[in-house]
Amino acid sequence: MTNSVEQKSIDKVLLLRAAGISKSFGANAVLKGVSLRLFRGEIVLLRGENASGKTTLLNILTGNLTPDSGTIEVKRKTEWEKFRFPQPWRHYVNPFMHFTPESVCSKGVGRTWQDIRLFPKLSLLDNISVARPKQFGENPVWLFLRPAEVRSTERQNRREARSLLADLKLAERGHLLSDTLSLGQSKRAAIARAIHAGAKILFLDEPLAGLDEQGIDSVLTMLLSLAEKDGITLVIVEHLFHIPRLLKIADTVWTLKDGEVFEERPQNAETSLSNQSDPVRQLIEHHSSIGYELIEQHLPGNATLTILRRREETACILRVEDLIVHRSGKRVIGPLDEPQSRGLSFQLFEGDTAVLEAPNGWGKTTLMDAIMGLVPISQGQITFRDQSLTGLPTWRRARSGMAYLRATGHSFSRLTVSEIFELADAYPVPDYIAILAARGIAKLSGGQQQLVSLFRVLSSPGATCCLLDEPFNMLDHAAIESSRHLLRPPKGSCCLVAVPAIFPRNSLLNSEAVQDDVSVRHESKKRLHEYTIRGGLLGILKGILPANALSFLNELPFRIDGRS
User: Fold this and answer.
1) Which CATH class is domain 11-116+183-274?
2) What is the pTM of this model?
3) Which residues neighbour 257 within 8 Å (Cβ) at sequence distance 6 or greater?
4) Per-residue pLDDT tens over the stretch 533-545
5) Can you tell me whether residue 16 is helix, strand or coil?
6) Do residues 364 and 327 touch, judged by C-beta distance below 8 A?
7) Measured on CA atoms in the order 555, 557, 561, 564, is the torsion positive or negative?
8) What are the residue ranges of helices labelled H in 71-117?
9) 290-555 belongs to which CATH class?
10) DSSP secondary-structure letter at 259?
11) CA torsion sign, 367 to 368 to 374 to 379?
């Protein structure tokens, strides 16, 4: 297979250069004299372990964080604008020379975030339109002095926004509120908004995270078009699981390690990945040999519930019968094309680990919200240890032994790590979490926040049914491996894990479907780029299991009550 680096010639027009960028937080030196360059139309993959400084580097290059030392230069048409750090005193008294996100954005540097940050109560079209800089309508004076020009520029702005939505195949959704979009649609909209704001250099923080196969394909197709057709420079930070895909479209790889950026070719990065050990395959083979039963339940909407079950008889913990859930008047859980049919049904027994794989928009989070009582159900019954949960508030469900780790928003950002664990009564804390004890949650990297939340779940007492919504999102290989040492759950529990369906397969019961590489293709304007990914999320979940038990996920303890 030919790599995209060989297929695409980069326009060697330098747009941004940085030299000697350093940043420390207290005694922790995150960046140490980083130097880099970006060219027009270049696709750069930025990779590194959790807490290596990837987000810190993005924050600095986009004006959201001031470095301790170094220089950043951004090209505007034919001229260069230079920021030198530490900044001279005159920069603090001149409002036009400040190094801020607004000033950097005005120079054509854009950014998307891990959390998408669309305006939830604006339509999709308005979310795109509002990004246009220097709109006449922003100044109320022009509304009275130049009303015709204001209306004309507004019509032109909305025509351009509609054109962007049409390119994204979202034109028919332009009138809908953004909070009704699927995750993949929202991420494409966030990228479009940054482009509409005038970005010529775009930094993307995990644009593929949480997406299913179709969503990944759509976003990658869009990114390729932006680079090849429009000459947009892209710097992409992405999760470990998606790096093999991005290596096939990247021109350059930046590896951030020990505070320094090492530049390499994608071919070399592929070689280093292929030379790593493959614990997933080994553990799958091991656990398939110790007698656990795999049960598949195919659900409407191309979803699959795979249950890993001990062969001995155990008591039922969670039973969902004929469940139908509506949100905003729309049926989310239950067959969408058969209004009179029965709803969703399944049951989990002691020792069960259930993995729900479903496309984005299927209702994975809605299902877990309904089980925890966060959204009302329209039909059906949810039973926990033979007790009906109908009318039971969320805090009562938590106290009875149910647990829920949401995909986002699962920690108090203003508390420190030690305060989080104290409130959750989660002990003991492992050494590599304890070293973060004095740091605020908001000061941690995305991977560190996820790791703290996951171990808070594992260490909290009392829960016998745990619901995990994408629990390993943002965790690198080392973090997943380290989690194996703390997984000592109590017996008599079950766990439901929800993940996006990110790879096609005939059946998880077919070992080849789990182990073989999966090839996926997507189109650019001129050619097809092929990319592969080994294994799948279920394999990754199995990959962190202790060697002596397959059921650590069955019994993850966590309470979601008024304290945590």
Assistant:
1) alpha beta
2) 0.68
3) 48, 49, 52
4) 233 333 433 344 3
5) strand
6) no
7) negative
8) 89-93, 101-105
9) alpha beta
10) T
11) positive
**Measured between alpha carbons, how far is 200 from 138 in angstroms, rounded to an integer?**
23
Residues 235 and 58 sit within 8 Å (Cβ to Cβ)? yes
Which pLDDT belongs to residue 445?
78
Look at residue 111 in the predicted model and tell me its pLDDT: 92
Q: Answer whether 548's CB lies under 8 Å from 523's CB.
A: no
Question: Which three-class secondary structure state does DSSP give residue 72?
Answer: strand
Residue 514, pLDDT above cutoff 80? no
For 96-113, how does the pLDDT look when each residue is reduced to its tens digit (9 = 90+)?
667 888 888 888 999 998
pLDDT digits (tens, 9 = 90+) for 459-479: 777 888 889 888 877 777 667
Q: Give residue-wise pLDDT tens across range 322-356.
A: 999 987 677 888 776 565 567 899 999 988 888 88
Contacts of 524 (CB under 8 A, 6+ apart): 221, 224, 225, 228
H/E run at residue 383: strand 379-384
Q: Is 141 helix (H, G, I), strand (E, B) or coil?
A: helix
Report which secondary-structure segment, H or E, holds 149: helix 147-167
Query: How many CA atoms does the CB half-sphere of 387 hold within 13 Å?
Result: 10
Q: Where in the chain is the domain with CATH 3.40.50.300?
A: 11-116+183-274, 290-555
Q: Say what the pLDDT of residue 339 is.
A: 58
Distance CA 560, CA 66 (A): 37
Q: Strands 303-309, 353-358: parallel, antiparallel or unpaired by DSSP?
A: antiparallel
Assign residue 258 a region: left if phi > 0, alpha if psi is -120 to 50, beta otherwise? left
